[in-house]
Amino acid sequence: MAETHTAGSIDRAKGWQGISEDWSSDQRAFKSASWGKAMMWIFLLSDTFVFGCFLLSYMTVRMSTAETWPNPSEVFALTIGGESIPLILIAIMTFVLISSSGTMAMAVNYGYRRDRVKTAVLMLVTAAFGATFVGMQAFEWTKLIHEGVRPWGNPWGAPQFGSAFFMITGFHGTHVTIGVIFLIIMARKVLRGDFDTGRRGFFTSRRGHYEIVEITGLYWHFVDLVWVFIFALFYLW
Amino acid sequence: MAHAVQLDEGHGQQPAAATQVQGQQHPIKLYLVVWGWLFVLSACSYLVDYFALQGLLRWGLILIFMMLKAGLIVAVFMHMKWERLALVYAITVPPVALLVFVAIMVAESNYTLLTRMLFLGGQ
């Protein structure tokens, strides 16, 4: 017990020595992370494999088809002011999601400083960016469906384009939506002062603390991270 | 205060014993700088498409910008930089298996394409 309370002041080995000591300590292996944070990381690792498999199957169908792949640069172009700008909506979506990551990182920071109002406001701004992103994605889906893109075919080439597109962006959009809901719930708790008064959570009946802001943030940054890969591999490739 | 998580999260930057402030504490400026870089890198990868660069240059730039952005997000925004190596490696090494999977599927897709060309007349 004493160890957990003073652990921060213990000098631990670094490098490979540190890894070996942490893992063989017959205690928790992750000395710098609470169980909540470690579990979020492990969940994100499993989610990495889920998205990895989606992107891999996309790569496989694209490489193995004998038909031409629709050019994303043209498919996702928007006409603004009479001029066709390639991929502009996707670029805006990318900037929106990156901005939401920036506000999230700052929310985590203010959370640890016990600044309830700033934390909650930044979390709500993050959620608003996320909702904007999902809204633009809905617009994009609507546009493509009107143009005749279906999971089994499209007007421009390889039919696999539609299934890969709907599967990957749909799954990512679902993650963003869940993140927005999660953020709003946590922002409400922060604003109400649950983590200062020790109010018990409605779901786990346990007392929370400001670390949940960082854990929520981990999930949120992961959603942004996945978008980085989707943007590069699906839209730009 | 903060009952359960009096763990050693105050590692690294400051001696944890002293203060009530714990968890990841870094100057806001750091986040703003990373945010700025993410904007720049995203703009660069968008410009690759805008100017319709092709060939090795295109793939190379897209992948470099992608990895730089991913690295910044994981290292700074997700605080991986300040975690202990036991966690860092536990999380970042397993995805390397995906690269092996990529190699396998590249071989497989080439074979599928070959059979489609040879026996299905390019269907």
Low-confidence parts of chain B: 1-21
Q: How much of the polypeptide of chain A forms β-strand, as a percent range?
A: under 5%
> Termini distance of chain A?
53 Å
Q: How many independent structural domains of chain B?
A: 2
Q: Helicity level of chain A, as a percent range?
A: over 70%
In CATH, the topology of the largest domain in chain A is named Four Helix Bundle (Hemerythrin (Met), subunit A)
Biggest interface, which chains? A-B, 76 and 73 residues
In short:
By secondary structure, chain A is mostly helical.
Q: Can you offer a commentary on this structure?
A:
The complex is a heterodimer of chains A (about 240) and B (about 120). By secondary structure, chain A is mostly helical. Chain A folds into two domains: about 1-30, no CATH class; about 35-235, Cytochrome c oxidase, subunit III, four-helix bundle (Four Helix Bundle (Hemerythrin (Met), subunit A), Up-down Bundle), CATH 1.20.120.80. Chain A has helices spanning about 1-5, 15-25, 35-65, 70-75, 90-110, 115-145, 160-190, 195, 210-235; strands at about 80, 85. Chain A has a two-stranded antiparallel sheet. Chain A is globular. The N and C termini of chain A lie far apart (about 55 Å). By secondary structure, chain B is mainly alpha-helical. Chain B folds into two domains: about 1-85, no CATH class; about 95-125. Helices cover about 65% and strands about 0% of the residues of chain B. Chain B has four helices and no strands. In chain B, helix 1 (about 30-50) runs antiparallel to helix 2 (about 55-75). The termini of chain B are far apart. The relative contact order of chain B is 0.07. The model of chain B is unreliable at about 1-20 (pLDDT under 50). At the A-B interface, helix 1, helix 2, helix 3, helix 5 and helix 9 of A face helix 1, helix 2, helix 3 and helix 4 of B.
